[in-house]
C-alpha cells in the first residue's frame, strides 16, 4: 500500500513539475517546482514533523536569500515586482503547500484506517480471550497484570478486574510460591520467565487445581521486552486420570494388559503381564505381539480360520469377539513353559474415532484348566463310584425284596397257627403255653409289619408305584387302620378316638398301602404315649384337600432331632432311652406312600408335650365337584 502511495505522489510531483516548466511565467517558478517531488516524498516518508521542518527550512532559506539579494523576491533598488511575477510566485507556493498537504492527508487517512483495524483486532482479541477455556494473563515486564480473561474467574474464582493492575504474585500465585514468582520478573528482558511450568493452584474456595502455565515474552521492533503473555490450562482431571491409569498399570494385578499399535507392536506391558510371563516391559515393548503366542498353536488356528499366522488375521477374527483361550510363551523361544490365557482384543480410537491401536486383556486360566481337568477326573471317578453304589443299592433292594417275600410266607404261617392255637382250635393250652404263644403272636405281628414296610418301600422306590389307582373313601382306611392297631390298644390303658365325617372323603389311591401308612402313624402314636394318655385320629376336608390328623399326648421328639424324622432306620434318643421297640421304618414308609399319592405329610412335636402328624391328600375330581 505504501509503495503504491509513493508512486502516486511521485506521479503528482512530476505532473506539478511539468506544469511549472510548461506554464511557469518565470524561471523562478520552474526552479521552485523542480525539487517539489523530493519534498513531497520526504513529507510522506517522515510525516508531519518533516513537513514542519521543510516549511521552516524553506522560510529560513528564502529569507536569507532575499536578504542577500538573491532569489525571486529580490529586486533592484527602486524597481517593483511585476504582477506576473507576484502571481507566479504565489501560485508556486500554493502548489507547494497543497503538494505538502497531500502526504499529510494520506498519512491521516492511513492512521484512521489503522486505528479502525486496531480497534477491530482488539475487539476480536477480547472476544477470543473471553471465550477461551484457557486462562490468559498479560503482564508487563515487572509482573503487573494488564489484561486477564474471563477464564480466570471460571477456574480460580478471581474477577478479571480484581487481578488487573496488581502484581501476579498477589492474586494468582499461591502464597507459598510467591518467593519463586517474584524473581521471574526481576530481569527487564524477560529472561527469567520460564517457558512452561506446572504447579498447584488454589481457587478462592480453597480447592486445589493442577495448572499448566505456558509463557511467552512480547518484544517490540527493537527487540526490547514489553509484555509477558501467560496461558494457564487446568489439567487437574487429566493428571488424576493419568495417575489412575498409571496406578492401574502398575498395580499387582493378575490380569495382563498389553497395548498394541496398528501394526501389532507392543507399546504397553503392565505389571500383570510381567508377572504372568516372567518378562520385563523393557524386554517386550517394541516387539511383535504374535511372538507372545505359541507358534504351533497359532499356526494351527490360522489354518482353521483360513488365513495366515499374522497379526492381521488376529485382528480380523478376534477384535470385539468373546474371549478365547490361547497358549502364551514366557520367552520367544521353543521349549519354554506355556501359559493358558483367556484373551480378548479390542480396538482403541482417538477422540475423532480414528484407530490408533489395540488393547489385549488376558487372564491366566492355566490353574483353572488344571483344576477343571482334576475335577473332571474326580467327577468321572465319582460317577463310576455312584454307578457302582447304584448297582449295589439295586442289588440290596432286590435282596431285601426277595428276602421279604420269602419271609412273608413262613411268618404268615407262624401267625396263622398262633391264632389257631390261641383260639383253642388245636387243644387246650396251659397258662404257661398261652403266655408263650402270646409272645410268639406279638413278635409274629412285628415281623409281618416289618415285611409289609419293606415290601412297600421297595415297591414304591422301584420304577414307580404298582398299587391300584381307584377312588378310595378314606373313612374305610381309618376303619382298617383302627382294626390293625386293635391288638396294640387292647393291651394299653389309652384313650384312642377316631373321628370322620358322615359323607365320603374320596381320594385316588390304593387302600392297602394307605392303610399301611396310617397304621404306622397310629402305631407310633400308641407306642410313644404312656398309659393314661390320649391318641386322637381326625379325618376332615379343607378346600380341595382331604386331611388326616394323628395327635397324641406322648413323649414328643427333641427339636434338634426332628430334621431326621423321615430317615430310614433312624430312631430318636427318646425311643432308645425308653427302650421302645421299633425298626425306624414307620415314618419313612408313611412319607413314601403319601408322596406317591401326591400328598404331603408334616410333623409338629414338642418334647414331653406330644406330637401331631398332618397328612394332606388331594380330593378326587368327582368328590371335589360334589363338595363344590
Task: Provide a descriptive summary of the structure in words.
By secondary structure, the protein is of the alpha+beta class. It is built from 22 helices and 17 strands. It has helices at residues 2-23, 27-33, 36-46, 48-67, 83-131, 151-156, 160-163, 168-171, 178-181, 236-250, 271-277, 281-284, 295-304, 311-318, 366-423, 431-461, 474-484, 486-490, 511-527, 573-577, 586-596, 621-627; strands at 135-140, 145-148, 196-202, 208-219, 225-234, 255-260, 266-269, 324-329, 338-349, 355-364, 470-473, 495-499, 506-509, 534-542, 545-552, 600-606, 610-618. A 5-stranded antiparallel β-sheet has the order 2-1-5-4-3. A hairpin with a 2-residue loop joins β14 and β15 (545-552).
Offer a few descriptive terms:
single chain, 5-stranded antiparallel beta sheet, disordered C terminus, 17 strands, alpha+beta
Topology, element by element:
Layout (H helix, E strand, L loop, with lengths): L1 H22 L3 H7 L2 H11 L1 H20 L15 H49 L3 E6 L4 E4 L2 H6 L3 H4 L4 H4 L6 H4 L14 E7 L5 E12 L5 E10 L1 H15 L4 E6 L5 E4 L1 H7 L3 H4 L10 H10 L6 H8 L5 E6 L8 E12 L5 E10 L1 H58 L7 H31 L8 E4 H11 L1 H5 L4 E5 L6 E4 L1 H17 L6 E9 L2 E8 L20 H5 L8 H11 L3 E7 L3 E9 L2 H7 L1
Parallel strand pairs: 12-14
Antiparallel strand pairs: 1-2, 1-5, 3-4, 4-5, 6-7, 6-10, 8-9, 9-10, 11-13, 14-15, 15-17, 16-17
Amino acid at each position: 500500500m505504501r509503495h503504491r502511495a509513493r508512486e502516486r505522489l511521485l506521479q503528482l510531483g512530476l505532473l506539478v513539475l511539468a506544469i511549472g516548466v510548461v506554464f511557469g511565467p518565470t524561471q523562478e517558478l520552474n526552479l521552485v517546482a523542480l525539487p517539489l517531488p523530493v519534498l513531497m516524498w520526504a513529507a510522506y516518508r517522515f510525516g508531519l514533523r518533516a513537513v514542519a521542518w521543510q516549511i521552516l527550512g524553506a522560510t529560513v532559506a528564502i529569507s536569507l536569500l532575499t536578504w542577500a539579494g538573491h532569489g525571486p523576491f529580490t529586486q533592484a533598488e527602486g524597481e517593483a515586482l511585476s504582477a506576473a511575477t507576484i502571481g507566479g510566485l504565489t501560485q508556486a507556493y500554493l502548489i507547494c503547500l497543497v503538494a505538502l498537504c497531500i502526504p499529510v492527508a494520506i498519512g491521516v487517512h492511513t492512521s484512521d484506517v489503522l486505528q479502525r483495524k486496531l480497534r477491530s483486532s482488539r475487539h476480536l482479541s477480547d472476544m477470543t480471550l473471553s471465550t477461551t477455556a484457557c486462562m490468559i494473563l498479560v503482564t508487563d515486564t515487572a509482573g503487573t497484570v494488564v489484561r486477564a480473561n474471563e477464564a480466570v474467574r471460571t477456574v480460580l474464582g478471581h474477577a478479571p478486574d480484581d487481578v488487573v493492575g496488581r502484581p501476579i504474585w498477589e492474586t494468582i500465585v499461591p502464597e507459598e510460591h510467591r518467593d519463586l514468582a517474584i524473581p521471574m520478573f526481576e530481569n527487564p528482558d524477560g529472561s527469567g520467565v520460564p517457558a512452561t511450568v506446572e504447579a498447584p493452584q488454589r481457587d478462592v474456595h480453597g480447592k486445589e487445581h493442577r495448572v499448566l502455565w505456558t509463557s511467552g515474552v512480547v518484544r517490540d521492533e527493537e527487540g526490547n521486552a514489553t509484555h509477558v503473555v501467560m496461558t494457564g490450562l487446568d489439567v487437574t482431571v487429566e493428571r488424576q486420570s493419568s495417575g489412575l491409569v498409571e496406578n492401574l498399570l502398575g498395580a499387582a494385578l493378575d490380569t495382563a494388559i498389553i497395548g498394541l499399535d496398528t501394526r501389532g507392536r507392543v507399546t504397553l506391558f503392565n505389571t500383570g503381564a510381567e508377572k504372568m510371563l516372567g518378562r520385563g516391559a523393557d524386554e517386550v515393548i517394541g516387539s511383535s505381539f504374535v511372538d507372545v503366542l505359541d507358534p504351533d498353536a497359532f499356526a494351527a488356528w490360522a489354518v482353521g480360520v483360513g488365513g495366515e499366522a499374522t497379526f492381521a488375521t488376529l485382528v480380523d477374527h478376534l477384535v470385539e469377539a468373546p474371549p478365547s483361550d490361547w497358549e502364551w510363551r514366557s520367552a520367544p523361544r521353543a521349549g519354554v513353559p506355556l501359559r493358558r490365557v483367556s484373551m480378548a482384543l479390542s480396538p482403541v480410537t482417538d477422540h475423532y474415532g480414528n484407530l490408533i491401536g489395540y488393547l489385549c486383556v488376558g487372564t491366566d486360566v492355566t490353574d483353572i484348566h488344571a483344576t477343571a481337568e482334576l475335577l473332571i477326573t474326580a467327577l468321572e471317578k465319582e460317577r463310576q463310584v455312584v454307578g457302582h453304589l447304584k448297582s449295589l443299592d439295586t442289588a440290596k433292594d432286590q435282596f431285601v425284596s426277595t428276602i421279604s417275600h420269602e419271609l412273608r410266607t413262613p411268618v404268615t404261617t407262624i401267625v396263622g397257627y398262633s391264632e389257631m392255637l390261641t383260639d383253642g382250635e388245636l387243644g387246650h393250652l396251659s397258662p404257661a403255653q398261652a403266655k408263650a404263644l402270646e409272645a410268639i403272636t406279638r413278635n409274629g405281628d412285628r415281623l409281618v409289619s416289618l415285611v409289609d414296610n419293606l415290601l412297600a418301600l421297595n415297591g414304591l422306590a422301584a420304577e414307580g408305584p404298582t398299587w391300584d389307582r381307584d377312588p378310595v373313601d378314606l373313612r374305610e382306611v381309618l376303619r382298617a387302620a383302627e382294626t390293625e392297631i386293635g391288638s396294640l390298644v387292647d393291651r394299653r390303658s389309652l384313650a384312642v378316638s377316631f373321628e370322620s365325617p358322615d359323607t365320603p372323603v374320596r381320594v385316588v389311591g390304593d387302600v392297602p398301602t394307605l392303610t399301611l401308612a396310617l397304621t404306622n402313624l397310629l402305631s407310633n402314636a400308641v407306642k410313644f404315649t404312656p398309659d393314661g394318655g390320649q391318641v386322637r385320629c381326625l379325618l376332615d376336608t379343607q378346600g380341595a384337600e382331604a386331611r388326616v390328623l394323628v395327635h397324641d399326648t406322648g413323649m414328643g421328639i427333641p427339636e434338634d432331632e426332628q430334621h431326621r424324622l423321615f430317615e430310614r432306620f433312624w430312631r430318636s434318643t427318646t425311643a432308645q432311652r425308653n427302650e421302645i421297640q421299633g425298626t425306624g421304618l414307620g415314618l419313612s414308609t408313611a412319607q413314601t406312600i403319601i408322596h406317591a399319592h401326591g400328598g404331603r405329610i408334616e410333623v409338629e412335636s414338642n418334647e414331653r408335650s406330644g406330637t401331631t402328624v398332618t397328612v394332606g391328600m388331594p380330593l378326587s375330581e368327582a368328590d371335589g365337584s360334589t363338595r363344590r
